[in-house]
Write a structure and sequence with these properties.
Layout: E1 15-18, E2 21-24, H1 31-37, E3 61-66, E4 71-74, E5 84-87, H2 91-104, H3 122-129, E6 153-155, H4 165-173, E7 180-182, E8 189-191, H5 206-209, E9 215-217, E10 233-235, E11 244-246
Parallel strand pairs: 1-5
Antiparallel strand pairs: 1-2, 3-4, 3-5, 6-9, 7-8, 10-11
GO molecular function, one term: 4 iron, 4 sulfur cluster binding
Organism: marine sediment metagenome
Domain 2Fe-2S ferredoxin-type: 14-92
C-alpha cells in the first residue's frame, strides 16, 4: 500500500466471493475467469479467453449480491472487485440463462444428428445442462442463405447464434476484412459481401472458433465425428518457422 493507504497497481489483488468461496485474483480479471479458477464453469458463447468479452450472448449471467454491482449482470463484462459476492446458482440468474438458451434455440435447426459439430457442440452442451428440452415457439423460423467460402469451409448460417466469435477472430486476429457482420438485430448475417474464397490463410480456424457449427470442415464433412479421427503431432509447413501442430 502507499503512504495514503491506497493500493498500488502492483500489490492490489481484489478478493471476490463466488458461490460462498473466496478467491484472490489479479486486477482486471473478469468474474467469469475468477469463477473458472475456482472450478466453476459459467456458461458462455461469445466469451473466449483469446478474444476477450463483448457481452453479446447474455448466457453468462450471474447474480451480484454485494459490492459495487447488484442484480443480474454478465460475468464476462464485469471485472472482479473487492467486496463482490456473486452467486451462479441464484434462481434469478439460473432462470435468466435458461430463457437466453430458449431464445437462442428459437430459430436454430434441429439437425444435430447430421451436423458435424454434433457431440462436441457448445450450444448442445449448454442447452442440455440448462434444462431446455421443449420448444414452445410454433411460428416460422428465420432462415438464411448459405455462402460458398472456398474448398475448406462449409457455411451453415441457420445455425448461427450471433456470438460474433468468427468476425472478431477473422478481423482482429487474422487481420482480414472480407468476412464480418452485416445487417442488424436478429437479422445479423456473418459472411462475405458475396460468395468467394476467404482471403485469410487462417480461415480454417473458423471451424474451431465457432461454437455451433456455422463453419465446419468441408473435406471431412459427413465422413466421421471428431472423436473418430486419430491425431498425431506434426510441424506446420506454411512458412519457415516450423510451428508445432496436430494433424
Amino acid at each position: 500500500a502507499t503512504d495514503h493507504g491506497q493500493h498500488t497497481t502492483d500489490s492490489y489483488m481484489p478478493k471476490i466471493i463466488i458461490d460462498d468461496r473466496e478467491i484472490e485474483v489479479a486486477p482486471g480479471t473478469k468474474v467469469i475467469e475468477a469463477a473458472e479458477k475456482l472450478g466453476i464453469m459459467i456458461p458462455r458463447f461469445c466469451y473466449h479467453p483469446a478474444l476477450g468479452s463483448v457481452g453479446a450472448c447474455r448466457v453468462c449471467a450471474v447474480k451480484f449480491l454485494q459490492g459495487p454491482f447488484k442484480g443480474v449482470q454478465m460475468s464476462c463484462m464485469v471485472a472482479a472487485q473487492d467486496g463482490m459476492v456473486v452467486s451462479t446458482t441464484d434462481k434469478e440468474a439460473v432462470d435468466f440463462r435458461k430463457y437466453v438458451i430458449e431464445w437462442l434455440m428459437l430459430h436454430h435447426p434441429h439437425d444435430c444428428p447430421v451436423c458435424d459439430e454434433g457431440g462436441h457442440c457448445l450450444l448442445q452442451d449448454m442447452t442440455v445442462s440448462g434444462g431446455h428440452g421443449i420448444r414452445r415457439y410454433l411460428g416460422k423460423k428465420r432462415t438464411y442463405a448459405d455462402q460458398y467460402l472456398g474448398p475448406l469451409l462449409q457455411h451453415e448460417m441457420n445455425r448461427c447464434i450471433h456470438c460474433y466469435r468468427c468476425a472478431r477472430f477473422y478481423q482482429e486476429f487474422s487481420g482480414y476484412r472480407d468476412l464480418g457482420a452485416m445487417q442488424s438485430a436478429n437479422r445479423t448475417y456473418f459472411g462475405r459481401f458475396k460468395d468467394g474464397v476467404l482471403e485469410s490463410p487462417f480461415s480454417g480456424n473458423l471451424s474451431d472458433i465457432c461454437p455451433t457449427g456455422v463453419y465446419t470442415d468441408k473435406p471431412s464433412r459427413f465422413f466421421g465425428r471428431r472423436w473418430d479421427y486419430e491425431r498425431s503431432p506434426s510441424l506446420c509447413i506454411n512458412c519457415s518457422l516450423g510451428c508445432h501442430t496436430t494433424v
